Amino acid sequence: MFEARHTMDAPTTASADNGTSGGNGGGGWFTPRKEPAPSGEEQGAGDGRRLAAMRPVGRPATGQQAPGQGTPEQERISPAVEAAPPSPQAAPTHREVAPTGTRPREAVPTETRPYQTPQPEARRREPEPAYNPHEAVRPQSGPAHPGHGSPQPVAGQEPRVPVQRPAPESVPAPAPAPEASPDAVLIRRTMAEVGPVADKVTSYFYALLFVRHPDLRSLFPAAMDTQRDRLLKALLTAAEHIDNTPVLVEYLQNLGRGHRKYGTRPEHYPAVGECLIGSLSRYASAVWDHEMEAAWVRAYTTISQVMIDAAAADELRAPAWWYAEVVSHDLRTPDIAVLTVRPDQPYPFLAGQYTSLETPWWPRVWRHYSFASAPRSDGLLSFHVKAVPAGWVSNALVHRARPGDILRLGPPAGSMTVDHSTDSGLLCLGGGTGIAPIKALVEDVAEHGERRPVEVFYGARTDHDLYDIDTMLRLQQSHPWLAVRPVVDQQAHLQLPDVVREYGPWNEYDAYLSGPPGMIRSGVDALMDIGIPSDRIRHDSLEELVAAGD
Ligand SMILES: NC(=O)C1=CN([C@@H]2O[C@H](COP(=O)(O)OP(=O)(O)OC[C@H]3O[C@@H](n4cnc5c(N)ncnc54)[C@H](O)[C@@H]3O)[C@@H](O)[C@H]2O)C=CC1
C-alpha cells in the first residue's frame, strides 16, 4: 500500500517544519506504549487510543501540482508495497475491496494540524551521493550505423576494467545533515539501530499489520516476497528526510497519488503507523524511549498527512487507475517486446515519465515502465519490456500478453523530463530497454520544434540487443540536431560512460541517464567527473531500478 519511490533527488536534508513545533509534541496526542507483539490479544485500549491519536488530519485539497508532474518518484522499479485493487478481470469484486476510485474522499476527524504542506517547488534530480564501483562492461562506441551491424570502435583496445558489484541498497543510509533537527537525530538513531536487522523489522511489521488489521491484507498482492520491504523502505526514506520539507513533500505527494490505485484510504494510515512504530520499538529497543517514539509519531503524522492530502487532491482530477487495452505486441527479440496500449480515458503525461502497470495475471503486482513515446495525438502509449528471470510481470507482458488483453495503469510519475525553457543540449545515455524514455525525450524535443543538440548513446550487450536502433536511426535521419551512437559491450573496450568522455565538451548540456542501476551509477560518476554539475543530471531512482524489471 505504500510505494517507496526513492529518487535521487529525493531526500537530502534541509529544514523547515521539523516537527518540533506546534501542538504535537512528544507526549501530546500519542502515548508511548509497550512493545507490541503480533498478537490480536494485544489490541487493547492502549492501542485504540494510539490509533486514534495517529489519525491524520483531513484537509481540503488545494494548490497541488498537476498529476504526475515534477514528482520525484523518478524511480523505475521501486520499493512499493503493492497493495492494489483487483485485476481488471476481477473488477466487480475488487472494486469493493478498493473503494477509493474516484469517489469523494471520506472525511477524517480533524484533531491537530502539526504540519503545513508547503507549495511544491520545482527542482531537479540529483544523483545519489555515493556509488560503488561498477560492474564490468566493455562497450564500444562508433558512428551511428543502419541496421544491426556492429558499430565501429571509437577508441583503442583497453584492458577490461576490474569491477565490483554495487552494494545492496537496503535501508537508505542516513544523509549528511549538518543541522539536523532533534527529531531527525532521533529518527536516524533508530534507523542506525534497525538497519542491520531490516529484514526482521519488515517481517514483524507485516505480521503486526495483518494480524491486527486483517482487512488490509486484501490490499496487498497474494505473494509479498519481492515487494515486502517496499512499504517500510518508503516510510523510512521519508522519515529520514523529515527535515527537508520541499523535497519530502514532493516525494510524499507523489507517493500519496500513487497509492490511490491500491485502494489506500485515509483510515488505513493510523494502522500502518501503529505497526511501524511497533516494529521499530521492538528492534530498536536498546535506544527506544518516549522521546524517540514521539519523534516517530510526529514524523509519521507528517508523512501520512501529506500523502492523504495529495491523494485527495488527485481524486478531484484523475482516476485512481486507467484500464488500457493492448493494441499491438511486437516481439523484437526473444525476450524484449514493444507493447502499445490504448487507455480507456485520456492519459496525460510528459515524455521521460513512467507509469506503474498491472497485468490481469498477477493482480496487485505492479511494475514500473517508462513511456517509450512522447504523448501522441491518438492517445496510444507504448512500453519496452524485457522478460527477466523470475519476473512475473515482465514475462507475462513479453510472453503472454496479446492484443485485446486489458492492463491497468497507475498515474504517470517521474521528473526526468525536458526543460523547454532552456536551449541547453541533451546528453542522453540509454542502456538496454532504458532507451525507451530517451526515445520519448527525443520525440518531445522534435515536437517542440527546437534546434537544440541531442546526443544519444545507446548501450547494449550485443548488437542484437540494440532492438530499437532502427527507430533511433530513423529519428536521426529526420533531425539534423540528433546524433545516435550505439555502444555494444560485446565489441567494446570502454564502458558506456567512458565512451561519453570521448566526446563533448558537455558543459552546455543537460544529462539524462536511463538503464540498469550499474549504468546509472557509473554514468553519474563519469559525468560529474567530467564537470557536469549534479543538478544537470537526471535519472530515475536507483532503488527502483534495483527492484525493477521483474
Ligand atoms: N523498460 C523501461 O521502460 C525502462 C527500463 N529501465 C531499466 O533499464 C534496464 C534495462 O535492462 P537491460 O535491457 O537488461 O540492460 P542491460 O543489462 O543489457 O544493459 C544495457 C547496457 O547498459 C550498459 N551498462 C550495463 N551495466 C553497466 C555498468 N555497470 N556500467 C556501465 N554501463 C553499464 C551497457 O552498455 C549495457 O550493454 C533495467 O534495469 C530496467 O529496469 C530504465 C528505464 C526505462
From TrEMBL:
Residues 319-419 form the FAD-binding FR-type domain. Keywords: 2Fe-2S, Iron, Iron-sulfur, Metal-binding, NAD, NADP. Its EC number is 1.14.12.17. Its cofactor is heme b; FAD. Residues 1-180 are annotated as: Disordered. SUPFAM superfamilies: Ferredoxin reductase-like, C-terminal NADP-linked domain (SSF52343), Globin-like (SSF46458), Riboflavin synthase domain-like (SSF63380). Residues 62-72 have a biased composition (Polar residues). Residues 169-179 have a biased composition (Pro residues). Residues 20-29 have a biased composition (Gly residues). Residues 178-312 form the Globin domain. InterPro entries: Cbr1-like_FAD-bd_dom, FAD-bd_FR_type, Flavoprot_Pyr_Nucl_cyt_Rdtase, FNR_nucleotide-bd, Globin, Globin-like_sf, Globin/Proto, MRET. It catalyses: 2 nitric oxide + NADPH + 2 O2 = 2 nitrate + NADP(+) + H(+); 2 nitric oxide + NADH + 2 O2 = 2 nitrate + NAD(+) + H(+). Residues 93-108 have a biased composition (Basic and acidic residues). In the C-terminal section; belongs to the flavoprotein pyridine nucleotide cytochrome reductase family. This is nitric oxide dioxygenase. It comes from Streptomyces dengpaensis. The lineage of its organism: Bacteria, Bacillati, Actinomycetota, Actinomycetes, Kitasatosporales.
